[in-house]
Amino acid sequence: MKPDIIALCNQKGGVGKTTCALNIAAGLTRLGKKVLLVDFDPQAHLTYSLGIVAHDLQKTVYSVIKGLVPLEEALLEHSGMSVLPANIDLAQMENEKAAFPEGEFTLKNKLAGIRDKEYILIDCPPSTGFITVNALACSREIYIPLQMEFLALKGMGRLMNRIEEVQKSFNKNLKISGIIPTRFDARKKLNNAIMDSIRERFGDKVFSTVIRENIVVAEAPSFGQTIFEYAPRSHGAEDFLSLCEEIVKKK
Fold first, then answer.
1. What is the pLDDT of residues 95-136, one digit of tens each?
2. Residue 175 forms beta bridges with which residues?
3. pTM strictly above 0.85
4. Domains of the chain, start order
5. How confident is the model over 125-174, as pLDDT tens digits?
C-alpha cells in the first residue's frame, strides 16, 4: 500500500508549520499509524525540535537525494516514528538544480519505494523555491498551517499561485486538503474575524479542530520533545490528538 504523502507548507515563517508537522506525526503514531517524518527545510528546525543535533549529522535528507546514502541508512527512530533529518547542507539544493537530473521529481523518486508507512509528512521550508516544489511534486495533499493574524492570511495568494503552477506542471493530483488554524485565542476579536474569513474562503478544507494558543506547545521543542511527551494533559496535546483523529477520518 502506498503511503499518504502530505506536505506541510506555508511561505510565511512563524505560523507553526514545523510544530504542526512534528505533533501531527506524533499524534498519528499514538493512534497506531506508521509514520515517516521528513525534515525538508535547510533550517532543520524539525530535526533540532526532536533533540537531534542537526549540524553533527553526516546522513541526512540531502545525503539521500544526492545519492550518497540509501534512505534506510539516514532514518532515525524517535517516539515510535521514523525521521529523515536535515541540516544546513540542504540549502545547497536550491542552487544546484543542474546536479539533480531528476529535477523536481528528485524527492518523489527517493520516497517511491516506501511501503511500510501509512503517512509521510514533509516539513517544507518557508519559501516557494526548488526545494518546496520537490516536496509538492511528490505529495498527494497539502496542509497549510495558518496563524490567526492578518499578515498570515495576507500572504496566502502567492502560495496558492505556486501550488497551481505545481499542479499544472508536475502533479495534477495534488490538492489542498487541510487548513490548520494555529495559535487561536477565542477571546481575541481579530482571531475570530480571521477564522470566519478563512472558513468562508476555504470551506470544508479548514479543519474543525483548531490549535489553541498554548505556551507549552512552544516550549516542548526546546526540550527535544513532542507535545505528548512534554505536556500530555495540556490543551496543546488535546488539540493535536483531535486534529489527528480528524485526519484519520478524512483518509
1. 888 888 999 999 999 999 999 999 999 999 988 889 999 999
2. 141
3. yes
4. 4-250 (3.40.50.300)
5. 988 889 999 999 999 999 999 988 777 677 777 888 889 999 999 999 99
